[in-house]
Amino acid sequence: MKAPPARLAYPVAIGALGTAWYASDSLRHRRDQGSGYRLDNDPPDPADREFLRTAEALTAAPIAEGSEIELLVNGDAIFPVFLETIASASRAVNLLTYVYWRGDIAHDVADALCDKAKEGVEVNVLLDWVGTLKMDTRLIDQLRECGANVARFRPLKPYALRRLDNRTHRKLLVVDGEVGMTGGVGIADEWTGDAQDPDHWRDTHVRVRGPVVRGLQGAFAENWLEATGAVLVGPGHLPDLAPREGATAAMQVVRSRAGVGDTNIEALMFLAIAAARRSIELTAAYFAPRPAFTAALCEAAERGVRIRILVPGAEGDKQIVRAAGRESYDELLEAGVQLFEYCPTMLHAKSMVVDGAWSSIGSVNFDNRSFQLQDEATLGVQDEAFAAELTAQFERDLEQSEEIDLGRWSDRRWRRRLTEKSLTLIRREL
Prior knowledge:
14 helices, Endonuclease, Chain A, single chain, 15-stranded mixed beta sheet, 37% helix, two-stranded parallel sheet, 17 strands, alpha/beta, globular, 2 domains
């Protein structure tokens, strides 16, 4: 192979050094120690307040008593509530999304935001630069022209290439500081409908009222501060939030950011798995666990916890992630974990229910991208009634899923095995 011409030697060398510099940071696991986790004492019961206090100590997420939560499944249920919530605003609307693409719903949301801005309501819209590359930029112009404040989160800059992977994946809507929404839904036609075909995705969102909304507002304000330099204050963003009458659920908004060492989301997920006594129902849009989490799930199964994991099947939108996650199937199945792949369409929901007592729902996937590379937020809910709702939906999803059988799985073709194994090296980036 000939050496490059002299005039190209310098840029080639710079490119090689730049690639190595980027890879040295992004491809290594950011935890200082390579081993997994352990609990030195008996784990707290997920049904007890001790579990929430432990989560609070690990993640600095305050416990909010007396908030209400409403479960919403698929676009036909989610978007009418989303638009209604925006329309109810009298002081401020704060919207943060990773995905804002195209379609009628993209225009409907922009129109709803513009209506409020024209009324004099403060409207702040934060769009992740990578996640919204497919957005119709005319919508941004429309929002700005009607008086909304629009910012892009971490746009591409030549001196910050290494942080291109470090996005905000949070999906938040907070109105008047009093009502909030979060979950997995992006703003695009894919999320409309009722998961009736491959063009309409299966997803889950929630609406909350009460003291826990302060945590959602904090997650928005953190990213807004970085993107704009503006601190959000005043009653439109931070009103008094009294407990809702009759509300018994205790909640926490756990958020995390990319960096060296464990993130809050990692710590929360490990705590939930380690504390499980009876059952775990995990729905993961992108499932590519690193070895420490595979081991934690296997250990839970081996101590008698019934673990069922639901992931996308052939209609998944990122088959490379699916293949990478499948590399862990052998170990999980041998430990007694039940694995299911959702058949009708892309499964984009992200939730976990532990012992029918504690739940997590938000934007967090079960992969290194969510655990280490992105800004994330999830809502932890200690409430048996809400856990029962999520579990009932999980059971309905299983009816449209295929269970992975250990015997048949072990007999799959060697080419698939080789592909799955080869993706281990890049699993940290997925």
